[in-house]
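Each record in this resource describes a single protein on a pair of labelled lines. An example record follows, reproduced without changes.
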Amino acid sequence: MEAAAAALDAALDGHAEAVAALSAARAAAAPVLARRRRSSGSRRSRWGRARFDVALVPCEPGRAGAERAQFEIAPNPGVPAAPLRDIASGGELSRVMLALLTAAGSEGAQGGHATLVFDEIDAGVGGHTARAVAEQLRSLAQGRQILAITHLPQVASLAARHFTIAKDSSREPARTTVTRLERDDVVGELVRMLGGDAGDSGARRHAKELLRAA
């Protein structure tokens, strides 16, 4: 019993030391991550004066330490920051995630070069914000491969390579086909995404302008 009690005391002391070290590392890393997210996000996602913070919320010490990281945003000046999960829209969540991934891949950060797959990360955004999200995706693709499924022509136009995905439900089992698009085919697909048909000269002109602007 004495040996077991001594081993338990030693383990608890070791756990307390590890928890303290983790807390110190988090306290040092949280403001750095927030600063990187602000610098990487404000330039591209049109957030203007919106504020982003990483709060460390104390909790009962356990395997994950003595606190949990909580992302907080204040989308408008003069409004106190609140947890991201409580107040962010779908579009804001997308932009924050992209900015965090960009920050994680910035110089000096442990971002790695893993392939990233986004399934409609641009859902809930449009207009200038859609373009900003597309620019963030392209920036994130520097040095790594990005696969993005999108229904927005502003996002699709900035891709380096384009594919269409078509599902044939008349077969059993259903079959999905992925086809690489050449330049002329990309214009036609952008026209379709813009809501036009093959004879819509205005939509075709807009599609070509999107590609030129990319």
